[in-house]
């Protein structure tokens, strides 16, 4: 399963904060200029004295401001740092105004002699954040605009009114929510370069990105100069004090220290002298910062660009401005602008240094502080998609009348012509409370525990034979279970969801008695079946299987949809909820049949794809076709699937030392795109076979299926829908779901609590593909993304014996993968690492296992006890923290270090700077150790947090 893809949901609910119908809006347009130079003043705030709505000037000093006619008696205020504010009653102003601001007299820095250093001022400012800023949750209405160009060719122009819910806490679970009230975008004609421009036209969720530049809220962000961890990288200098209206502002310049490897920013902060509130800052990336960003952000995307669309890029400029506004003596985020420039070369096109640039602007136009509540739907903050793809763009003049927007500099944009409608994307946040704390029910135990009524038999074979009615959305048929008696059996448990009806249960031509409790069936045999007997029982059943509730992690069901041509399209996805939601079986991961027949009957025009090989199709009365699939290997229950649709099929072969058949099924209209996408399968399989060993299901072949939802269905891997965006030759979903053939399918966790064994390894497999195809230098970006994704709310391992699925499962992907990368860094020997991965596959292939089994095997193979390491990452939420104390003693640096961790005796080796520009291992324990490094300074000391996913505290 691909966790991050569960964000795509039906229809976007438009539940904006709306002006009431009787509100009439008046429009004031104008310019704000410097009274002396006549230059436009960007960033000036335009607002009403009593109101909480406002706007800002654009980069050339122009603005449009809309206010309710009820406010006509209010006073207009215009302010900008370094200028005296402007005040005028609205009634004294016409519809258009030119405002010239007088520069405020500058006080010489020498005059305000204080005993405080720049760093002391900053520390105090950070301390006073809770007093100076509203730290309760607030809601904003905001205006967002995004423009992207290649030289003067416009790639994107999109704007949106957003509702933003913003708690102040920086904890990842209490973060911003963003709801799209209305958006519009310009329809672009990309002509022959469509593929390239498609790649270049977006930046990942720019509204969310803008909010994350708020370094007051996120002062402890990893690279923030406001974070005490980074003080040693910068000089903080109080350069001058300037006057803004009736306020004195301290100007603090933040510049990297000479040898600081992590001096990523240059920054200028403006702080209110009286309160030390940070009211504005600008920052730009230094060369080191640009290198860092280009490694992180640019990495994969740009590697793909060079491979697929044949361009190379060089990061050039990154500039940001963030300002705050004051309401009732509290400060609030007001505006964030971001600008970047990248140089693009393409030999193929004869391009040198073409300028690819983007501007993103977020302006808060309305503020609400009373009784604000999180949004219950429509939150797009979790989506990585570019804003313009989230905008459904029907133009609605009446709507835009009532909202404050940022005046655009390009008059062409203001054309009243409706912007054509394009695709609507809808996103919902899936966040349901964990049941880890709320205890579990008897139903959970019945579902998740291996009781004697389950361990008394071992399933050796299933034959599922069902007909699916697409109109009624129902399933009817039988499930034959062949089993071997491990204990004498008088009674056994089989599982089928309570909403599915049982017609009869037949054993040796005899109907059996049974009872049902929640989703369990208890079958009673007329006489005890002796140990060692192989027997078959058949359950005839029918019903309408459940559909998934996307607000609950791992809630499965049948998806019923239509393809782009309006044909029916259906798929079952049941990992977590369990296969028993649609067919009777022993629904526990510990027991897999040795083989299985899957017969699915569907209406004739449709194709049906399940797992294994299609042995034959049998026409049946009523214009129906039975698809008869056979899986010749063990298969776990949740992998058993059907996909019903109007599919096109094509084949390929993967030849290494033998031949593997490749079968591809895509929607008929995606045949060409499918051919493009699946070209990468050979390289991907090569990477996987190199790292994990031979493809585990050779007899059944390797099949990829375009599907409604991506899922690792064994030898019939579902990769989700193919869209124009996925046609560019890479697809992490494809890599991820395919990697599950090794991790999850060939070996399976006995209990779903250990599902990290599936997801952690499959997620790390994505990194291995990136490493092989794009080079190690691109790995860091993907790792950084994973680091950002970790929530740390709950341990990765769930509760055993209760089929624990309702919790924050995201960490088993990201943190699971980072654990593996960290462990690989600890080994520091890729031969050993790959041999270990292959050995794990060999040892547990076609079997089920637990975390303990896996760790014991790793310990045995490496002859080292790493239990402490896996325990800390998997069973606790805290990362191990390396506490470091640095003392400079002339040219010597004294380094004292120790681990702080939940696991006693945590002792993971880690790499740090042991000499200038040189990394080496240290072997910290939970008791402090000290080393002395020659010719090293405090700024030069660094811990390899790229490759070791740990917390570091340096004093
Ligand atoms: Zn997965």
TrEMBL record:
Q: Does the keyword Nucleotide-binding apply?
A: no
Among the record's GO biological process terms, what is one? peptide catabolic process
In this protein, which residues make up the domain named Peptidase M1 membrane alanine aminopeptidase? 729-873
Q: Which key words are in the record?
A: Carboxypeptidase, Hydrolase, Protease, Signal
This chain belongs to the protein called: Carboxypeptidase-like regulatory domain-containing protein
* Any one GO cellular component localisation term in the record: extracellular space
- Leader sequence range is 1-21
Q: Does the keyword Signal apply?
A: yes
Pfam families for the chain: CarbopepD_reg_2 (PF13715), Peptidase_M1 (PF01433)
Xref: CDD domains: M1_APN_like (cd09603)
Report which superkingdom the organism of origin falls in: Bacteria
What GO MF terms are annotated?
Answer: carboxypeptidase activity; metalloaminopeptidase activity; peptide binding; zinc ion binding
InterPro entries, from UniProt? Answer: Aminopeptidase_N-like_N_sf, CarboxyPept-like_regulatory, Peptidase_M1_aminopeptidases, Peptidase_M1_dom, Peptidase_M4/M1_CTD_sf
């Amino acid at each position: 399963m691909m966790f991050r893809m569960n964000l795509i949901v039906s229809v976007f609910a438009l539940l904006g904060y709306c002006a009431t119908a009787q509100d009439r809006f008046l429009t004031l347009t104008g310019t704000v200029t410097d009274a002396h130079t006549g230059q436009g003043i960007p960033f000036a705030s335009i607002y009403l004295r009593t109101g909480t709505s406002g706007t800002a000037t654009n980069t050339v000093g122009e603005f449009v401001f809309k206010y309710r006619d009820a406010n006509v008696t209010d006073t207009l205020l215009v302010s900008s740092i370094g200028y005296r504010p402007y005040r005028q009653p609205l009634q004294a102003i016409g519809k258009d105004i030119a405002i010239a601001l007088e520069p405020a007299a500058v006080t010489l820095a020498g005059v305000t002699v204080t005993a405080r250093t720049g760093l002391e001022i900053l520390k105090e400012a950070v301390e006073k954040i809770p007093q100076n800023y509203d730290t309760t949750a607030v809601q904003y209405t905001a205006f967002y605009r995004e423009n992207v160009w290649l030289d003067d060719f416009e790639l994107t122009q999109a704007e949106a009114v957003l509702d933003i819910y913003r708690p102040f806490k920086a904890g990842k679970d209490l973060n911003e929510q963003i709801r799209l009230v209305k958006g519009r975008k310009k329809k672009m004609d990309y002509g022959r370069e469509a593929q390239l421009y498609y790649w270049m036209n977006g930046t990942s969720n720019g509204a969310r990105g803008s909010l994350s530049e708020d370094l007051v809220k996120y002062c402890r962000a990893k690279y923030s100069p406001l974070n005490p961890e980074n003080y040693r990288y910068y000089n903080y200098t109080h350069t001058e004090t300037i006057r803004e209206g009736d306020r004195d502002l301290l100007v603090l310049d933040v510049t990297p220290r000479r040898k600081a490897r992590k001096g990523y920013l240059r920054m200028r902060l403006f702080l209110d002298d009286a309160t030390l509130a940070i009211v504005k800052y600008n920052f730009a990336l230094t060369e080191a910062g640009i290198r860092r960003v280009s490694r992180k952000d640019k990495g994969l995307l740009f590697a793909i660009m060079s491979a697929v669309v044949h361009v190379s890029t060089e990061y050039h400029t990154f500039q940001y401005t963030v300002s705050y506004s004051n309401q009732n003596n509290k400060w609030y985020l007001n505006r964030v602008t971001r600008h970047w420039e990248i140089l693009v070369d393409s030999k193929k096109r004869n391009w040198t240094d073409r300028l690819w640039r983007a501007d993103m602007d977020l302006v808060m136009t309305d503020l609400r502080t009373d009784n604000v509540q999180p949004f219950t739907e429509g939150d797009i903050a979790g989506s990585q998609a570019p804003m313009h793809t989230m905008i459904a763009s029907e133009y609605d003049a009446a709507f835009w009348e009532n909202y404050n927007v940022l005046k655009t500099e390009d008059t062409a944009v203001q054309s009243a012509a409706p912007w054509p409608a394009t695709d609507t994307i809808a996103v919902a946040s899936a966040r349901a409370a964990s049941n880890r704390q709320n205890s579990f029910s008897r139903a959970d135990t019945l579902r998740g525990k291996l009781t004697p009524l389950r361990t008394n038999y071992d399933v050796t074979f299933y034959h599922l034979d069902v007909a699916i009615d697409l109109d009624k959305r129902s399933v009817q048929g039988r499930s034959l279970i062949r089993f071997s008696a491990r204990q004498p059996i008088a009674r056994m448990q089989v599982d089928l969801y309570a909403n599915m009806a049982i017609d009869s249960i037949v054993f040796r031509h005899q109907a059996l008695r049974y009872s049902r409790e929640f989703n369990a069936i208890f079958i009673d045999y007329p006489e005890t079946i002796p140990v060692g007997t192989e027997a078959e029982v058949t359950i005839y059943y029918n019903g309408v299987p459940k559909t998934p509730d996307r607000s609950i992690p791992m809630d499965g069901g049948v998806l019923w949809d239509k393809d782009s041509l309006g044909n029916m399209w259906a798929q079952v996805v049941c990992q977590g909820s369990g296969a028993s939601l649609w067919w009777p079986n022993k629904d526990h991961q510990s027991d897999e049949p040795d083989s299985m027949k899957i017969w699915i009957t569907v209406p004739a025009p449709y194709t049906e794809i399940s797992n294994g090989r299609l042995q034959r199709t049998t026409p049946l009365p009523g214009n129906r076709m039975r698809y008869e699939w056979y899986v010749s290997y063990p298969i776990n229950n949740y992998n058993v699937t059907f996909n019903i649709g109007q599919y096109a099929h094509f084949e390929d072969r993967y030849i290494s030392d033998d031949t593997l058949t490749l079968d591809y099924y895509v929607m008929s209209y995606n045949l060409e795109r499918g051919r493009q996408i699946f070209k990468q399968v050979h390289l991907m399989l090569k990477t996987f076979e190199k790292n994990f060993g031979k493809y585990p299901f050779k007899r059944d072949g390797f099949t990829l299926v375009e599907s409604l939802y991506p899922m690792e269905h064994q030898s019939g891997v579902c990769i989700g829908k193919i869209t124009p965006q996925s046609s560019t030759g890479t697809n992490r979903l494809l890599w991820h779901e395919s990697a599950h053939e090794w991790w999850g399918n060939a070996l399976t966790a006995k209990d779903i609590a250990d599902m990290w064994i599936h997801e952690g390894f499959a997620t790390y497999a994505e990194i291995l593909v990136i490493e092989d195809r794009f080079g190690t230098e691109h790995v860091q970006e993907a790792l950084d993304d994973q680091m950002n994704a970790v929530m740390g709310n709950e341990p990765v391992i769930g509760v055993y014996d209760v089929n624990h699925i309702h919790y924050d499962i995201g960490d088993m992907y990201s943190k699971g993968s980072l654990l593996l990368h960290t462990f690989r860094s600890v080994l520091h020997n890729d031969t050993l690492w790959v041999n270990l991965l292959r050995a794990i596959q060999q040892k547990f292939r076609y079997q089920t296992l637990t975390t303990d089994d896996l760790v014991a095997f790793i310990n045995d193979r490496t002859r080292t006890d790493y239990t402490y390491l896996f325990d800390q990452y998997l069973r606790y939420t805290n990362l191990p923290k390396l506490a470091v104390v640095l003392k400079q003693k002339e040219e010597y640096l004294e380094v004292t270090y120790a681990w702080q961790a939940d696991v006693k005796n945590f002792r993971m080796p880690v790499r740090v700077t042991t000499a200038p520009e040189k990394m080496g291992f240290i072997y910290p324990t939970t008791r402090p150790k000290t080393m002395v490094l020659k010719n090293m300074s405090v700024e030069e000391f660094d811990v390899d947090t790229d490759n070791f996913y740990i917390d570091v505290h340096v004093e």
